[in-house]
Here is the input.
Amino acid sequence: MIQRLSLASRLALLFAACTAVVSLLAGVLFNRASEAHFIELDQQQLDSQLVALRSTLQGVNSPALFAQREQQLRVELNRQPELALRITAGGQRWLDDAPGVTLPEGPGLHSLQNAGTDYRVYNVPLMAGQPDSPQLSLVLDITHHQHFLQRMQHLIWLTVGLSALATAVLGAWAARSGLRPLRRMGEVAAGVSAHSLTQRLPQQQMPAELAELAQAFNAMLGRLDDAFQRLSAFSADIAHELRTPLSNLLTQTQVILTQPRPLEDYREALHSNLEELQWMAQLVNDMLYLAKADHGLLIPKCEPLALANEVEALLEFFALLAEDAQVSLVREGSAQTAGDRGMLRRALSNLLDNALRFTPAGGQVRVRMVEGVRGVTVTVENSGEGIPADVLPRLFDRFYRADPARHEGSSEHAGLGLAITQSIVRAHGGRIFCESGAGWTRFVIELPKVN
Here is the structure.
């Protein structure tokens, strides 16, 4: 199996490739500029020589006249040892300082290589504007120019190679140093377990690009820690809730079986066991309901609802219980929404049951509904002793009871009602919170507007 390159190696290779490309482009551009510069210099040199040659050969239009000026021409050419001259007229060569070299035809500047020597050839008429003028071919030896360009090309390739190598080494070191926070993050992630969720990344030591990632990673660890603590507490609460009814069942059954008893005693024991089993079944059903909500499996129906009618039906259901407790029930306002009738009834029923249990005799339970632009607000409030501020954030925790005394043996007091209510409200896209003060405790449900 081919091992994948590490991120540091990839960055190093990328740096090296970028440096090589940039160096190569710079070298090519410099080489082209140097070639153009040398061509310009050669053109200037040939133009200055052409002026001197034309001055020396002014008026020469025949071999006889050329013979008279040849000595003077030689003197001029001896001043430029790298320059050779060929003069042709009427198909005859009057002068040829480059014998055996085939020169390019056509006017203008040309480049030529012959026998390992590089030349610049400049073809021009001796007398401009005259068709029958003798033709001059100025041949300039530029071998030293070409040697310089070749050395520069070798230097460019050497520079490209060394730059790429140096950049790869430095890039690998820089990438490894820069990625050290990621390795630290990996070490922390590798050390995370159910017994070590308290580790956090030092955000102050992180680069700006990784600070946000470190913050998100720490937040994730915090959520995991909180979820694990809740899960541990949830497991302990389940064991606590089930321990008492199971002990009651075992004890009562063992007592009944110690000796023969009348049929009525067996019947009474079975009825008592049935109550315990029903409570346990209700507790398990509530736990399964919350588990479905946690996994997003609690999908409510969407049907139009007149909340006033639903609340009125619930108040009628609780009327006898309120009458026995000497508590008055009041409904205020009305609202229209869309949701699951059964789920919303269950949520409101839990809030009403909770309010009735904590409202003193002569108190009042009110249900107020307000329909606004953003949605519907339903408030279930009751008079009586308030809830301490430090308790409010934990009211919706599973198995939590504001009263430290645990009332076991009744499903109504298992501490799951508010948790179920919160799950139902969240499944409808809303939120629920509690306020307590001035002799009133209010549970506020905010449901979003449904188009």
In short: The first helix runs from residue 7 to 56. DSSP finds ten helices and twelve strands in the chain.
